Amino acid sequence: MNKNLFIAFEGIDGSGKSTQVKLLAERLTKEGHKVYSTFEPTDSDIGKLIRNIFSHKTQANHQTIAALFLADRFHHLLNKTDGLLKKLEDGYTVITDRYYFSSYAYHSVHMPMDWVIDINAPCTKLLRPDLNIYIDISPEESMNRITKAREKAELYETLENLTNVRNKYMEAFELKKTDEKVFITNGNRKPDLIAKDITTMILSL
After folding, report:
1. 193: helix, coil or strand?
2. Is 69 buried (19+), middle (13-18) or exposed (0-12) by CB count in 10 A?
3. Collapsed DSSP state (helix, strand, coil) of residue 176
4. pTM
5. Which residue range is the domain that position 87 belongs to?
6. How do residues 99-156 score in pLDDT, each as one tens digit?
7. How many domains does the chain have?
């Protein structure tokens, strides 16, 4: 790893992305890299609206949700204070918990994937990850972890939907295999073993 990178973590709910973002950030910081960790939806006003929809406080149709994610992503990219492009320009390695592959997978369960990809095309032109890391767990394991972690499931958190989302992730990876660098790792193992594989992959870039 000879430069600052942009790394996106992907996976269905409960896959352990946030844990691996934290472990990777700690490791790269120890290696002497400037690291900025972030997530989508963001904590902007748009991101808060998305979270209200997920927690059933606000109602919205699937097209509106997809459009809100896109607006939040533009803010995430272009924010002059701590946007992704600004942080990379300042020499940080940026690690995000979710990026546009999440939109491809989650939204295309409810609408054509081509439409989701098309509306996100400007984001891919602004900034494409140096590496997309997909932490793979079964939908059954996802639901098991969600049930233990939350009192109430959020929007999209059903076994049927998570099964569909995982399938859509695989469809999107295949569709974009010539454009994107994707590393798939088994998320059913202990976090330190997953982290070791991820770090080895990133340090080779």
Report:
1. helix
2. buried
3. coil
4. 0.95
5. 6-203
6. 999 999 999 999 999 999 999 999 999 999 999 999 999 999 999 998 887 777 677 7
7. 1
